[in-house]
Amino acid sequence: MQSSEKAKELYRRPTLFSSFDELVAAESTRHGGVSPEPYASLNLGLNTPDDPENVTENRRRFFATLGISADRVASSHQIHGVAILRATEPGRFDGYDALLTNQPDIYLAVSTADCVPILVYDRRHQAVAAIHAGWRGTVGGIVSLTLQAMQAQFDTHPGDCYAYVGTCIDETSYEVGPEVAEQFGPNHKRIDSFSGKAFINLKSANTRQLTDFGIPAAHIGISTFSTVLDNKDYFSHRHENGQTGRMLAIIGIQPR
């Protein structure tokens, strides 16, 4: 994390990546922007009803604190699917929930407001991935599919990877219906013994895909924050009844 107070307001950098000077990796907070309620204040979502000029200024501020240019960012309109894009150039794409690249100076970004962002760094091959996983993407194995794509395209090996499971809705806040609960294994859901209601743990379900691929537990960082319990710092689509902003999680390798 940068030392300035402004940078601290705008984003948090995963401790896991702090020793990699070549890497830009961060997830935004909701602080330091210009958007009014209910999008206050650092709304980075391009597909929200917020004034586009506000979002443009917020994104400018966020990227500037990271020392990168907005025209070097690759992102996509996400559809809660499992399609993966190998980004060979920056830009705004459509229909992908995961992006990967081995090209420096391309910064991959995914948008969230309860779903979990996962950032992956292959240190040996200098490749990165950014993944957006809601319950559909999690059940569809989007993390596993992305890691397999990195292995096929970049010769990525599990022991060379570092992965961060970012801020999302926590298990105690993520009640789901039986049609969703039945798609998760017992290690990633809790059934309340009194009410019979089901609750899903997106962090653990996606972490399991990382460890199943073979990434060492010591190479995995998991956010301690919740979009609901820490709503003063993060946007939550569910807690704020859909009227809220979006965060970005971003990763990329700086040019030498």
UniProtKB/TrEMBL annotation:
Pfam families: Cu-oxidase_4
Coiled-coil zones: none
Catalytic reaction(s) noted: adenosine + phosphate = alpha-D-ribose 1-phosphate + adenine; inosine + phosphate = alpha-D-ribose 1-phosphate + hypoxanthine; adenosine + H2O + H(+) = inosine + NH4(+); S-methyl-5'-thioadenosine + phosphate = 5-(methylsulfanyl)-alpha-D-ribose 1-phosphate + adenine
Entry superkingdom: Bacteria
InterPro entries the record matches: Cu_polyphenol_OxRdtase, Cu_polyphenol_OxRdtase_sf, Cytotoxic_necrot_fac-like_cat
UniProt keyword annotation of ATP-binding present: no
UniProt KW keywords: Hydrolase, Metal-binding, Transferase, Zinc
Sequence similarity: Belongs to the purine nucleoside phosphorylase YfiH/LACC1 family.
Protein name, per record: Purine nucleoside phosphorylase
Organism: Nibrella viscosa
